[in-house]
């Protein structure tokens, strides 16, 4: 109990006090960027795509049923998606839904794709379809919340992020995104809420270090040097970790109004080439948002 209460005092002091990273620290971090080798396209995915192509080319001869064709095209679409071939992936997901209109996961993928290209109306339709077909879908509400966030429908986003957090309260990423949405309305209250959730829900997963970064307990340079690649699991690559690291550093600097640094971080996230990560997909969206915010800030001066 003493350790917990002591941590509460320290955390709240950092939130209420001047916990923001200084521009000097940020400049130091930019001079010490960790450049990792981008992830390469997985050869196994390419081989599986070739096998699916062969099956579909002979579907009449093999008498593949309609639902089987839907499953094959959905699978091929997910492989294209993982390789960053988003146009081909989108085409296959639509084809899969023509064969089987009840594939909730295909709608979920399409919702993410439409969000990334700022076709928000279509994205809402996709996620509403997901939740109609599968009300317990683990990512439907979360992804719809992200669409609302990028569409500047912040009240909707906060509502859905809260629901998503109720589904998985120990998920640091859901906590972080709820903070980003709340910060659009009331930054000070959002930080207090983030600190409370850090104390209530944190576990040993790496994502909670990102929460500490946002709260100011770790600065940019130290995070990049000491935390970014900490406890890397066997199924994680350095590029995946750095994609997340640079994306959330970009969000943090964006919130601070340091738009030039934010742009550098978002471009570094894109340099990792992790196409199936939401952070990679939405880094371009963030670059667009940052450019608009930078322009608005310049006009107001």
From TrEMBL:
Provide this UniProt record's keywords sorted from A to Z. Answer: Cell membrane, Lipoprotein, Membrane, Repeat, Signal, TPR repeat
Top-rank lineage group of the source organism? Bacteria
Q: Where is the secretion signal located?
A: 1-19
Q: Where in the cell is it found?
A: Cell membrane
> Which residues form the TPR repeats?
70-103, 104-137
Under SUPFAM superfamilies, the record lists: TPR-like
InterPro entries associated with the record: CellSynth/LPSAsmb/PSIAsmb, Lipoprotein_NlpI, TPR-like_helical_dom_sf, TPR_rpt
Q: Name one GO cellular component term.
A: plasma membrane
- Claim: Protein biosynthesis is one of the keywords in the record: no
Q: How is the quaternary structure described? A: Homodimer.
> PANTHER family from the entry?
LIPOPOLYSACCHARIDE ASSEMBLY PROTEIN B, TPR REPEAT-CONTAINING PROTEIN PA4667
Main role?
Answer: May be involved in cell division.
Protein name in the entry: Lipoprotein NlpI
Q: Which organism is it from?
A: Pseudidiomarina indica
